[in-house]
Amino acid sequence: MTAFYNEFKSKNILKEYGLPTGEFALAKSKEEAVEIAEAYGYPLVMKIVSDQIIHKTEAKGIKLNVANKEEVEIYFDEIIQNGKEYNNEAVIDGIIISPMVAKGVEVIVGGLQDVQFGPVIMFGLGGVFVEIFKDVEFRMAPLTKQEAIALISSIKAYPMLTGFRGMEPVNIEALADVLVQTGNLINENRKIKEIDLNPVICFENKVQVLDASIGFKE
Questions:
Q1: Phi and psi at residue 105, in whole multiples of 5°?
Q2: Can you give the pTM of this predicted structure?
Q3: Which member of 80, 148, 199, 215 lies 3.0 to 4.6 Å from 176 by CB, making a disulfide possible if both were Cys?
């Protein structure tokens, strides 16, 4: 059996290993949500936080481009209610709030404990590239920086990361650091069964983990 940590718990673990999670905070009440939102500024993302609700989109537990205090108050109640309707046995810890991030290139970084090979890192582009084309590659962990760069360059869609047809090239060095850090995390914590960083958004000057879940052996 695998028990999953919610996004808030998972991101706090990622921070300990130096992964770029960006700003985030947990609001356990509507008042806390407004206080956090006013401190961050708008627009914002609001997402449900529950160990029993991993697929937040299915639960209608995500609101993007939250524009003002009034929307924060409305969406806080709406997200909590949607979560209860999706799973009435779920323990809802609150709402995670983060600043909206500009559109970039989305990739997926994963980790798993393979029965034969031990800790393994997975990398691929997000969206249709992983869902339809299965364009992902794997390497054993831990990885060196050079091995991480080699893993990134091994996918078929690699040109999309290097400025294909006028697209903004992404920061390969920073992305490689994410792979190295994820490899260290799953290698040093063998009770972790899987790591899912999806998506990781990539820009020319930085990368950031937008969503994360970590599964542990029960």
A1: -90, 125
A2: 0.94
A3: 148
| Nearby residues of 217 by Cβ (< 8 Å), 6 or more positions away | 1, 2, 3, 191, 192, 193
The CATH architecture one would assign to domain 105-217 is 2-Layer Sandwich (3.30)
Domain extent listing, the chain:
23-99, 105-217
Which structure tokens are listed for 165? Answer: 């047809």
Distance between CA atoms of residues 35 and 30, nearest Å: 9
Return d(Cα 32, Cα 116) in angstroms, integer: 46
3-state secondary structure of 46: strand
What is the C-alpha to C-alpha distance for residues 24 and 45, in angstroms, rounded to an integer?
Answer: 10
Distances (CA, A) of 25 to 66, 148, 169: 15, 30, 30
Please give the CATH topology (third level) of the domain spanning 23-99: Dna Ligase; domain 1 (3.30.1490)
* DSSP 8-state symbol, 68: S
One-character DSSP codes across 84-130: HHH-TT----EEEEEE-----EEEEEEEEEETTTEEEEEEEESTHHH
Examine domains 23-99 and 105-217 and report if their fold is the same.
no
